[in-house]
């Protein structure tokens, strides 16, 4: 598995981008959060955690602790995959908050606070967070998931139509006609094979 390749951020929703942190972009499956180092690299690219906080957590935690958090992240991801594939294609109908507990349990650990800071545009209110352990890295992921679950119309959450593609995205196009994770990964490939099929039919 090659986690050096840049991660994919094409879902138009950071909660769903997390789901796409395991994918098969070209033939070989890639898991970007296969271990603690992978998790840190993925979080850096996702910008869910500020770079300086990420550096501090990564330098203070043992590699074993980071690997354990990555394992928890993968579990959360598979829970999310089951949840999204159960409900997508229709308006979301969850009757029991117990079903959302994996996310709520993480959100309860949040240690956020706000601070007045002096920025380029003057004084502004800045959201900050206490990073008391490596496990806290899961909180912003849970927050992105929670935002996706509470704000997205699940009717338009789709799986890519590409052959063997597992990527999931929110279709925010006006006509809701998005079919592919991206043109470069699947859209063009589908167009080429449709073109070949047409050519064969002509012959
Ligand atoms: Zn695709």
Strand order of the largest sheet: 1-2
Mean pLDDT: 93
Bound molecules: zinc ion
According to CATH, what is the topology? Answer: Jann2411-like fold
Outline the low-pLDDT stretches: none
Structural class: alpha+beta
The helix-strand sequence is HEEHHHHEEHEEH
Strand proportion, as a percent range, falls in 15-25%
Number of domains: 1
Q: Helical stretch count?
A: 7
CATH class: Mainly Alpha
- For the record, the CATH architecture stands as Orthogonal Bundle
Cα-based radius of gyration, to the nearest Å: 19 Å
Description:
- With about 200 residues, this protein is an alpha+beta fold.
- It has a single domain (about 15-105, about 135-200), classed as Jann2411-like fold (Orthogonal Bundle), CATH 1.10.3300.
- About 45% of the residues lie in helices and about 15% in strands.
- It binds zinc ion (ZN).
- Zinc ion binds near residues 181 and 185.
